[in-house]
Amino acid sequence: MTSTAVTTGPAIDATTTAPALEPDLAVPPSPVPFSELLRTRTRSGHGTSSRAGFMADLMRGTCSRDDLVRLLAQYWHVYRALEQAAVGAAAHPVAGAFVTDRLTRLPSLEADLEHLVGPAWRDRLEAVPATIEYVGRLRGAAVSSPTAFVAHHYTRYLGDLSGGQHIGRALRQRYGLPDEATTFFAFDDVPDPTAFKDEYRARLDSLPWGEADEEAVVTEVLHAYDLNTRLLAELDAERGLDAGPDPGAAAGPVAGPDSGAAAGPAAGPDSGAAAGPAAPVASGGAS
Question: N or C: more exposed end of the chain, with fewer CB within 10 A?
Answer without folding.
Answer: N
